[in-house]
From TrEMBL:
<protein>
    <recommendedName>
        <fullName>phosphoribosylformylglycinamidine cyclo-ligase</fullName>
        <ecNumber>6.3.3.1</ecNumber>
    </recommendedName>
</protein>
<feature type="domain" description="PurM-like N-terminal">
    <location>
        <begin position="114"/>
        <end position="222"/>
    </location>
</feature>
<dbReference type="InterPro" id="IPR016188">
    <property type="entry name" value="PurM-like_N"/>
</dbReference>
<dbReference type="Pfam" id="PF02769">
    <property type="entry name" value="AIRS_C"/>
</dbReference>
<dbReference type="GO" id="GO:0005524">
    <property type="term" value="F:ATP binding"/>
</dbReference>
<keyword id="KW-0436">Ligase</keyword>
<feature type="domain" description="PurM-like C-terminal">
    <location>
        <begin position="235"/>
        <end position="395"/>
    </location>
</feature>
<dbReference type="GO" id="GO:0004641">
    <property type="term" value="F:phosphoribosylformylglycinamidine cyclo-ligase activity"/>
</dbReference>
<dbReference type="GO" id="GO:0004637">
    <property type="term" value="F:phosphoribosylamine-glycine ligase activity"/>
</dbReference>
<comment type="pathway">
    <text>Purine metabolism; IMP biosynthesis via de novo pathway; 5-amino-1-(5-phospho-D-ribosyl)imidazole from N(2)-formyl-N(1)-(5-phospho-D-ribosyl)glycinamide: step 2/2.</text>
</comment>
<dbReference type="InterPro" id="IPR036921">
    <property type="entry name" value="PurM-like_N_sf"/>
</dbReference>
<comment type="similarity">
    <text>Belongs to the AIR synthase family.</text>
</comment>
<dbReference type="InterPro" id="IPR010918">
    <property type="entry name" value="PurM-like_C_dom"/>
</dbReference>
<dbReference type="GO" id="GO:0005829">
    <property type="term" value="C:cytosol"/>
</dbReference>
<dbReference type="InterPro" id="IPR004733">
    <property type="entry name" value="PurM_cligase"/>
</dbReference>
<dbReference type="GO" id="GO:0046084">
    <property type="term" value="P:adenine biosynthetic process"/>
</dbReference>
<dbReference type="Pfam" id="PF00586">
    <property type="entry name" value="AIRS"/>
</dbReference>
Length: 398
């Protein structure tokens, strides 16, 4: 069902905001100003007169929407859950698994081995694969695969040792598979770890023609007295953000909904940018291994959060002791244009963006104030002071 906005009061209210008493006549209450988007690729909107009451506003909006053929779907605010991904359900599953296997829930799993811990992580690249199929860009999806696992295990301070992959398809296209594995090899070289082995599964009728799925597994090692576990984090510590290359490998179910709404193809130029939409979205995930391990060696890092699904809102608190939270300063880094385009076209709320995407920051370090000065003063490092640790749980934005 896709009714006209003008015929449904509840839908209209999503576009109409109360302005309180009219500036022209303070005795008129319940006046409205309607923000009707006329062009999803521009900032144009059509405001209603300030002295319009609710009934007049709805009638006027009905005519406007009819004139410009604006549908309810164009005005709806997209969410990750609407796109098919329920972050809360995922968190609930982790909570239940933790009852059966205590100790899980971190970015990587720790296994004691002598005076060290083996740290293991596993992941895939989600529906970014759908865009790989559509764009034909298969050479870098393996980098994404390696990044998602090794970036998780370095949050404990572990150096990646080796990586294993799983490649599954209905009919094995050797040339295509070679491109994917080449990306995995490239990713392992960036992470300074070995591609130890893998599994290729050919399962007829299970996947669509030309499609495949991949997953990866990384194992690293860290000395027990050097593990980063967040237990020493205190109020007054500083949050340092390391820039991402783009969306990385999370949120693509919502991205694909936005892309469908935009009317653009993957070969069209991203508005205001010199790259195509496909190129911007398929930019490989940054592998932070060498950068983060070098910073760890300099001291002062107390916690590390990999910003994946759940964004800032869910991932940063995972490294805090109970009773602590974070304040994030929204103007402390420049949000890349790609995220602004996604938010604008999808009419996505700020809170939803912050809980779905990395917003241009792929890794967050929790450091002492002294370490923050050292990191920010290093001209060879691109990093931002994005916030502070505060008393009180949760993440606040200002």
């Amino acid at each position: 069902m896709n009714p006209s906005i003008g015929t449904k009061t509840e839908l209209l209210k999503s576009l109409v905001v109360s302005t309180g008493p009219c500036r022209r006549n303070p005795h008129l209450s319940g006046s409205y100003q309607c923000k009707i988007p006329l062009d999803l690729t521009s900032r144009k909107s059509l405001p209603l007169p300030m002295n319009y009451g609710g009934t007049q506003a709805r009638a006027h909006a009905k005519n406007v929407f009819k004139k410009y053929s604006i549908s309810a779907k164009m005005a709806e605010s997209l969410t990750y859950k609407d796109a098919g991904v329920d972050i809360d359900a995922g968190s609930e599953l982790v909570r239940r698994i933790a009852k059966m296997a205590p100790g899980i829930g971190g970015f990587g799993g720790l296994f004691p081995l002598g005076d060290s811990y083996l740290v293991a992580g596993t992941d895939g690249v989600g529906t970014k694969l759908k865009l790989a199929f559509e764009t034909g860009i298969h050479e870098t999806i393996g980098i994404d695969l390696v990044a998602m696992s090794v970036n998780d295990i370095i949050t404990s301070g572990a150096k990646p040792l080796f990586f294993l992959d799983y490649f599954a398809t209905s009919h094995l296209d050797v040339d295509l598979a070679e491109k994917v594995i080449k990306g995995i090899v490239d990713g392992c070289q960036q992470a300074d770890c070995a591609l130890l082995g893998g599994e290729t599964a050919e399962m007829p009728d299970f996947y669509a023609e030309g499609e495949y799925d991949i997953s990866g597994f990384a194992v690293g090692i860290v000395k027990k007295d050097s593990v980063i576990d967040g237990k020493d984090i205190a109020a007054g510590d500083v949050l340092i953000g390391l820039p991402s290359s783009g969306v990385h490998s999370n949120g693509f179910s919502l991205v694909r909904r936005v892309l469908a709404r935009s009317g653009l193809s993957l070969t069209d130029q991203l508005p205001g940018e010199a790259v195509t939409v496909g190129e911007a979205l398929m930019a490989p995930t940054v592998i932070y291994v060498n950068q983060v391990l070098n910073l760890i060696n300099k001291g002062g890092i107390k916690g590390i959060a990999h910003i994946t699904g759940g964004g800032f809102t869910d991932n940063i608190p995972r490294v805090f002791p109970k009773g602590l939270g974070a304040t994030i300063y929204g103007d402390s880094w420049v949000v890349p244009p790609l995220f602004k385009w996604i938010q604008k076209v999808g009419n996505i709320e700020d809170s939803e963006m912050r809980r779905t995407f990395n917003m241009g920051i792929g890794m967050v370090l929790v450091v002492s104030p002294e370490a923050a000065l050292q990191i920010l003063g290093d001209n060879e490092i691109t990093a931002y002071r994005i916030g502070d640790v505060v008393n009180g749980e949760g993440v606040r934005y200002c």
